[in-house]
Amino acid sequence: MFRELENEPTRTVLLPKIPGDESGVVEVGLNGRFYLLTRGATLELPLSLVEILRHGGLI
Known about the structure:
Blueprint lengths: L9 E5 L10 E6 L2 E6 L3 E5 H9 L4
Antiparallel strand pairs: 1-4, 2-3
């Protein structure tokens, strides 16, 4: 899924579920690539995606 980011350090994060959010996903864009991340799951993500989620107030 993250082949272009495979050499980057990773962090484990939990994207909390939001009541009323029917999709259950978060869409994150980085350098023209978009990733759908599942809410309510513990994910091992490249640090650049973690920083985007932090700046967006999602984690």
